[in-house]
Amino acid sequence: MPALTHNICPLFLFLSFTLLSFGFCSPYARPTEVPASMNASSYQTIQHSNHSNASESVHGRGNSDRHCQPFYTTFSDPSTVADSNSNPSNSPFVALSPPETYAITSNGLEMYLQRPKGEVHSANGMNDNLGEAATINSTFWMDSGKVTYEASCDYVPGVVCAFILIDAVQVSDGELHLDEIDVELVGSGSARWQTNIFKPSKADPEPHYGQFDTKEQYPQNPSYTSFHKYSISWDSEKIVWGVDGQDARTIRKEDTYINGVPHFPGESDSLRLQLGIWDGSGAEGTSTWAGGPVNWDTAPQKIVATVRSVSVEC
Ligand SMILES: *[C@@H]1O[C@H](CO)[C@@H](O)[C@H](O)[C@H]1NC(C)=O
Ligand SMILES: *[C@@H]1O[C@H](CO)[C@@H](O)[C@H](O)[C@H]1NC(C)=O
Ligand SMILES: *[C@@H]1O[C@H](CO)[C@@H](O)[C@H](O)[C@H]1NC(C)=O
Ligand SMILES: *[C@@H]1O[C@H](CO)[C@@H](O)[C@H](O)[C@H]1NC(C)=O
């Protein structure tokens, strides 16, 4: 993706246009056995620990609530995702989008992008009306560890499925914290999956959209419409992405310097998980990157990303 392309998560449309003019974003079968580190009792621990502090906007390494804790879910229990109006303190995930944008089904967590209400006009490679779609946060944080998202994504040009790690949006001492480590399934083609990182800082607030993105292959079943296991392992030195149990890409902190400034996410802050599907038709650069704009004359009325499981290993 070329620099200055606007790759904007829906969550940040508001921020990107009004606050800082930044835009950031961003298989196999159902597992039959749970790794020992992620058994039901450790899930219960997570479920029943109080995550009311997880919504604090200021956080960092060293806070005992932020360390990596093993976690595993197949989204079999509806309480795994708290809706946007309820108290999320007893759920590992909370929806940012309305209840109709997602469902806990026998397939796992289904996240939807719905056809926009009303007319959609396309011009200059964009649509003037975007579909409502799901964004779901974890209520827990990690300061390192390995996350695995087992997921599939419908292939529709203009649509992006995103399985990411993300910092809180905050500005302290003029420093913008908006780190991301991304896995994105992009409507420009379903045969590959994409990785990216973002780490704006006071020293260099540029998003560098196209600087660190890559397209990765699948060892088998080369389409993101099938379920695959996407993993992100990270610590303060390096990030390793994998698919279906094979390492795909490693980036080290020293690989992320631009003009002497490091752009290594998650180094000094904890990250939370974020799952989503979004309509990339809203900005020209994003739309081009996503293979859009979405053609709603031919696209399904409801486009689906399905998450079968999420695990955290520490
Ligand atoms: C479950 O996992 C926890 C730590 O994650 C461990 O202490 C406990 O012994 C495990 N229980 C079983 C039955 O494996
Ligand atoms: C939340 O934070 C407060 C103070 O920061 C602390 O006293 C309390 O124990 C925390 N609660 C949980 C459940 O971590
Ligand atoms: C968990 O947080 C809620 C408020 O968000 C509070 O009412 C409740 O007492 C807390 N439970 C524990 C065990 O700290
Ligand atoms: C979801 O995560 C983003 C990024 O950390 C944060 O800005 C937002 O406030 C979170 N929303 C909820 C409801 O947790």
Automatic annotation (TrEMBL):
GO biological process, one term: carbohydrate metabolic process
InterPro entries to which the protein is assigned, alphabetical: Beta-glucanase-like (IPR000757), ConA-like_dom_sf (IPR013320), Glycosyl_Hydrlase_16 (IPR050546)
Region Disordered, annotated ranges: 40-64
Gene Ontology MF annotations: hydrolase activity, hydrolyzing O-glycosyl compounds
Signal peptide per UniProt: 1-23
Keyword Hydrolase: yes
Domain GH16 positions: 36-305
Keywords per UniProt: Glycosidase, Hydrolase, Signal
Compositional bias of kind Polar residues: 40-56
Coiled-coil region(s): none
Protein name per Swiss-Prot or TrEMBL: Concanavalin A-like lectin/glucanase
Source species of the chain: Lentinula detonsa
Lineage: Eukaryota, Fungi, Dikarya, Basidiomycota, Agaricomycotina
